[in-house]
Amino acid sequence: MKRYTTPEKPVFFYNPLTETDSDDFKLEQPQIMVMAIDFLPSLLPYDASKIYHNIRGLELGKYLNKIVPEIALSDSSKPISE
Predict the structure, then answer these.
(1) Has residue 5 got a pLDDT over 80?
(2) Which of helix, strand or coil describes residue 59?
(3) The predicted structure's pLDDT at residue 50
(4) Is residue 13 within 8 Å of 34, Cβ to Cβ?
(5) What would the pLDDT profile of 27-37 be if each residue is shown by its tens digit?
(6) CA–CA separation, 30 vs 20, rounded Å?
(7) Residue 54 DSSP class
(8) First CA to last CA across the chain, in angstroms?
(9) Which of 40, 41, 58, 82 has the greatest number of CB atoms lying within 10 Å of its CB?
């Protein structure tokens, strides 16, 4: 991989004949569109959480804001019931 992309600029174009890449698509050249966001899998849960929160409303967000810190600070060596 010559370079990675970002969510703000998700693709670049690679010319296999010249082995060069560009941010601009050129119709007269053979090009392959490449999406190479290396942290894309971590963005999917974030996006899903935002969408679910918007569907369910603020009540769910207020509830999660109360329990998430407790879960984060919990002792994972203990049984879940504790």
Answers:
(1) yes
(2) helix
(3) 65
(4) yes
(5) 888 898 888 87
(6) 11
(7) H
(8) 47
(9) 40
Q: How far is CA 82 from CA 69, 72, 75, 76, 77, in A?
A: 16, 14, 9, 10, 10
| Tokens 């407790």 sit on residue | 70
| Angle at the Cα of 42 from the Cα atoms of 36 and 47, rounded to 5 degrees | 105
Q: Is the pLDDT of residue 60 over 80?
A: no
Q: Model pTM? A: 0.47
**Is the Cβ–Cβ distance between 13 and 21 less than 8 Å?**
yes
Among candidates 16, 50, 53, 17, which has minimal Cα distance to 33?
16
Q: Which of 12, 4, 6, 9 is nearest to 33 (CA)?
A: 12
Place of tokens 């007269």: 28
Q: How far is CA 10 from CA 33, 46, 52, 58, in A?
A: 10, 17, 24, 31
